[in-house]
Write a structure and sequence with these properties.
Helix content: 40-55%
Shape: globular
CATH class: Alpha Beta
Radius of gyration: 17 Å
Strand order of the largest sheet: 1-2-3-4-5-6-7-8
CATH topology: TIM Barrel
Largest sheet: 8 strands, parallel
CATH architecture: Alpha-Beta Barrel
Strand content: 15-25%
Bound molecules: zinc ion
Length: 258
């Protein structure tokens, strides 16, 4: 079976150090033959590009400024990242979005940065990897006010309710990134939302090094754990894991054009 990890930060030196390449190889051996690396800020572009060039056939990159890194200098940072969209061949703009969980100081700036980066995606015909944590109202407000055609979006690390799915669907035919949270005991609401989303709009992701699925919960996550997430999704939806693998791979391949 082949899988795509649609969201993984295996390039983060602090977490993986010398082991980054080994961890990518282990994923490929497990059948996770395609991995998408979303960017965080200016400091992560270099290590991300390095790991990507070591595995150019199996890894892809996205460029953008993560909402938790939107600070007072956000405009200068975007001015530096913007031109790289032309030179670094990203498959998406990301990860971008709203995060009101850690810090609400830059709420307005996060919303403006999201709007600008949505525009990048629209102009370049790229899809968007969206990070939304405690920020659905803000995201919907930005989407509703957006002047132009909202690009295709994956709501990465989606842990919302059936109601949230409906609200998002009213804005577009978007995708939902499902990760290890679906295996957590206390995450019944996302399991309840899966049938509403449907396999046609689900992508698998690890969000490594975070959110490792059971039985690795609390430890460092890695892309080779994708089959554990697939098995859980299959169990919840009552479909064979092979179907989860083929359908989610098809979804991610089409979405990212990979
Ligand atoms: Zn991420």
């Amino acid at each position: 079976m082949n899988y795509v990890d649609s969201h993984t930060h295996l390039y983060l030196g602090e977490e993986f150090g010398e082991e980054s390449q080994m961890v990518v190889r282990r994923a490929i051996e497990t059948g996770v033959t395609k991995m998408v690396f979303p960017n965080v800020d200016l400091s992560t572009i270099e290590p991300m590009m390095q790991l990507h060039s070591a595995f150019a056939d199996n890894t892809y990159i996205a460029l953008g400024l993560h909402p938790t890194e939107v600070k007072s200098d956000w405009q200068e940072v975007l001015e530096q990242i913007g031109p790289m969209l032309e030179t670094h061949r990203p498959v998406a703009v990301g990860e971008i979005g709203i995060d009101m969980y850690w810090d609400k100081t830059y709420r307005e700036e996060q919303m403006q940065a999201l709007d600008i980066q949505l525009r990048w995606a629209e102009v370049l015909s790229l899809p968007v990897i969206l990070h939304c944590r405690d920020g659905l109202n803000e995201v919907l407000e930005v989407l509703d006010a957006y002047r132009g055609e909202v690009p295709q979006i994956v709501f990465h690390s989606f842990t919302g309710s059936e109601e949230d799915v409906e609200k998002i669907r009213q804005r577009g035919d978007f995708y939902f990134g499902i990760n290890g949270v679906v295996t957590f005991k206390n995450a019944q609401s996302i399991r309840d939302a899966l049938p509403v989303i449907g396999l046609d709009r689900i992508m698998l992701e690890t969000d490594a090094p975070y959110l490792a699925p059971v039985p690795h919960r609390g430890k460092r996550n890695e892309s080779s754990y994708i089959p554990l997430i697939a098995m859980k999704v299959g169990e919840v939806l009552g479909v064979d894991v092979a179907e989860v693998a083929s359908k989610t791979t098809e979804n991610a391949s089409r979405f990212f054009g990979i």
